[in-house]
Structures are given as structure tokens and as C-alpha cells.
Amino acid sequence: MDRKAYKLPLVKNSLSRWACPSCMKGFLRVKAGTFHAEETKESKKAHGHEAWDLDWIEYVYSCLLECTNPACKDTVSNSGTGSVGFDVEYDENGFPSQTGEDFFTPKHFSPHLKIFLCPKGTPENVSEEIEKSFLLFFSDAPSAANHVRIALEDLLTHLKINRYEVKGKSRTFLALHRRIELLPARYKHLQDLFFAVKWLGNAGSHSDKVVTKDDVLDVYEIMEEILQDLFVKKTKRVKNLAKQINKTKGPAKSKKKA
In 58-181, which ranges are E strands? Predict the structure, then answer.
């Protein structure tokens, strides 16, 4: 996962580092003739202020992005906001001049970007919640984090961790924290990762918590590691075990007897 790519602004005439959501091989660039930006009404009004400067400018923009992979060339719509980044340059006489460049912050993509790929074998309801999170990543970081929390709940259910406990005739749903504590020994090495996803997901549910894009990228990185461990490394282990069994034409010699 290229964390930096999803924090960089869009520069109109530069190639982005966003992977195409269709092929995940090419990168996205602005399609010629489709970019349009306008300064907002409030931004235009501010020009009359005596303290006005370039960094007061605010834009809204929209464009089409095109995949650079010749075998794909899919199109993605994109919109968001913009501002001016400026610097001071000095001429040969030492006199300063201010130069500015427009930078644009994406808010919406259709289809949405895929920040990481769920490995084969990931339960469908888990991957669906992660896709919902990707959809919201650029516009609503707290909600994006919360959808990963929901994905974690679904993952625990897939791992057959109880959702509730029965006492007498009453049934009480278990808190996520308690469900993570119930992970069996074979998943204990992932317990700290599960708790980290829970805490970041919880923060996305509370309005008094500030959740940033960096926080959401953290939870993506952790969730990706969990899924890789469960559905990729496990597959390799099973394949290796099958090879051993086939080689001995019976029980694997390395297998410990109970």
C-alpha cells in the first residue's frame, strides 16, 4: 500500500500515483480537455479584503481521469476542492516575487479507488465493508474508519467467534473487545492487531475524536496484514502440508501427534 499516494494533492498536469481501480496496474492522469475549476463565491468576495493573499483562494473542481495502462484505459470521474501553494523567488537584483501553483484535494471518485486489495478467500461481507470505507476515505475519514470496524466484526463472525452469550433465558450481545479476547490460540498472534483496528474504528464513531487520513491509512495497513495472515499465509501452509502428505503418501512426518 502506497500511503503517500493517497495523501498527495492532484496537480493538473502531473501523473498521479493513484492506481487505476479497474486494473490496479496503470496510474490515473487527467484526461485532456476535461479539467474544470472555479473559484468559490466566498473566495471571490475575499479579493477585496486589504489583507488578501494567494493562499486565500479556494476552488471547486471536477475532471475525468484516465488509466495509463494501454490494455485498460478506463475512465474515473473525480471532483474536490483546491487552493494555491505559493513560493517567493528572487530575481538577479535580489527583488522578491511571489509565484503560485494550483493544488487540488480530491473528495470523490467514481468508481472509487482501491487502496489495497483484499486477498482471495476474504469473506464477501468483510470485503464489502472495506470497499465502503474506500468510497468514503477522501471525504469522511471517521466514517471510513468505522466501516473497517464493521468489517472486523464480520471477520470475527467468520472465524466463529460468538456474537452473544446466553445466561439463563436471556441472550446478551458481546462487545467487540470481548469478542477479540475470545480469539482461540491459533489466532492469538493477531490479537493486538484486532484491538488496534477496534480502537481506530471506535474513534470514527465518536464525534469528539479527531480521525485523520493518516489514522485511516493506519487501520488499512493493519487490516491488510490481518487478511494476509488469515487468507494468504494460511493457504501457503496448507499447500506445504499437502505436499508433505503427497510425498509420504500418508500422514506428514513433520506433523506432531496429539
Answer: 59-67, 75-90, 96-110, 164-167, 170-173
